[in-house]
Amino acid sequence: MSRTVLIVDDEPSIRSLVALILRNAGHGVLEAVNGEDALGMLRDNRVSLIITDYCMPGMNGFQFIRRLRKIPEYKTVPVILISGSSELILKEFIDEDISEFLMKPFIPKRLLDVVDSLMNTEDLQAFERKEVLYGKEQTSRII
After folding, report:
1. CB 103 within 8 A of CB 86
2. What is the rounded average pLDDT for all residues in the chain?
């Protein structure tokens, strides 16, 4: 099942690379240049996963995630944080609601493995929460 991923990064080359990797794997992709742009896109679009850079002008990745989590539909959406600066991130990572952290440069296969794993985890959680999927309510857990 194809799902849409939102990529939030101020570097066009990184956004384009991540988008190409995900599209080639069959995922739908939306691209935002910063946190404000991403929040605006989320008003009109539903995404299954978000990949965001840490270091962006205006609002960094953590600030974006904090604002994202205030939107009821996005309280539990998986978020992958990417950055080229690990020591700054690791101090805040534990306290934030982030699903995964990837260091730049990353290996495309690793990115896809993480995305696929989080998408599958989201499916399982949705069934456990008895959300409406595929047009009917599911009340049993997939094993």
Report:
1. yes
2. 81
